[in-house]
Amino acid sequence: MAARNAVVLLSGGLDSATVLAMARDAGYRCHAISFDYGQRHRAELSACSEIAGTLGAADHRRVRLELGAIGGSALTDPSIAVPETPTQGIPVTYVPARNTVFLALALGYAEVIGASDLFIGVNAVDYSGYPDCRPEFIRAFETTANLATRAGVEGESPFRIHAPLSELSKADIIRRGLDLGVDYSRTVSCYQADAEGRACGVCDSCRLRADGFREAGVPDPTRYQPTG
Fold first, then answer.
1. Strands (E), 66-146
2. How far, in Å, CA of 228 to CA of 226, rounded?
3. Which DSSP letter does residue 186 get?
4. What strand order describes the sheet that includes 160-162?
5. Most buried of 44, 146, 157, 190 (most Cβ within 10 A)?
6. Per-residue pLDDT of the chain (228 residues; tens, 9 = 90+)
7. DSSP alpha helices (H): ranges in 35-134?
8. Are 8 and 51 in contact (CB under 8 A)?
9. Which residues contact residue 215 at a Cβ distance below 8 angstroms, ignoring those fewer than 6 apart?
10. Furthest-apart CA pair in the chain: how many Å?
């Protein structure tokens, strides 16, 4: 039986790399899609291409957006500083409607290639509190996908949005990825990584990542920027 097509959202970070490995391990023919949305941590885009190749994606598309045009996030507006200490509430690194936009475009791509399965690496345990990473958002978008598309209305297979990391800790994600052969040294999670992909070590994403490796009891392969 031929492998089923799946669209996998790939950001270049630890979580999305793990999801790509999981989807492939489940027998899907993975079509990776990444977004150049004007993010300040552009090194993740190079990581996307490398990860897609090493983890056996059938192909990899990069879609150009300009979310900086609406602003409102430290990841797209250079005038807003990336927090380097924990903050209360939803942090300024939240990009307004980002996952809604990303999933909508991935859904369109899935409809074009005849895929009914989409994979996304959102997590609702060790995460920054973004509202579009919660399971209820994923369920709501899946409902929307099947209401808003020709494939959803006329197709034989309903769309399914898979978020296999949703209830896992960062340590559990890392252990699962290592079992599947993910090389985390190739991933970029930092919100203010330099041009070489080296991490700052102090942003929220860096803290969550470092804690995950420590709790998993494995060496942290992250390349960090020089200090002092």
1. 117-119
2. 7
3. G
4. 59-64, 29-36, 5-9, 117-119, 160-162
5. 190
6. 568 999 999 999 999 999 999 999 999 999 999 999 999 999 999 999 999 999 999 999 999 999 999 999 999 999 999 999 988 899 999 999 999 999 999 999 999 999 999 999 999 887 778 999 999 999 999 999 999 999 999 988 999 999 999 999 999 999 999 999 999 999 999 999 999 999 999 999 999 999 999 999 999 999 999 984
7. 43-54, 98-113
8. no
9. 169, 170, 171
10. 60
The encoded tokens of residue 122 equal 């959102």
Sign of CA dihedral 109, 113, 116, 119: negative
Q: Tell me the C-alpha distance between 107 and 7, whole Å.
A: 8
Distances (CA, A) of 218 to 5, 199, 200, 213: 33, 18, 20, 6
User: Does the global pTM surpass 0.90?
Assistant: yes
Do residues 29 and 57 make contact, with C-beta atoms less than 8 angstroms apart?
no
The Cβ of residue 87 has, within 10 Å, a number of other Cβ atoms equal to 13
On whether the CB atoms of residues 191 and 225 are closer than 8 A, the answer is no
Residue in the structure block whose two tokens are 């089923």: 4
Mind listing the domains of the chain with CATH numbers?
5-216 (3.40.50.620)
Q: For residue 192, what are the contacts with CB-CB under 8 A and spacing of at least 6?
A: 40, 41, 82, 200, 203
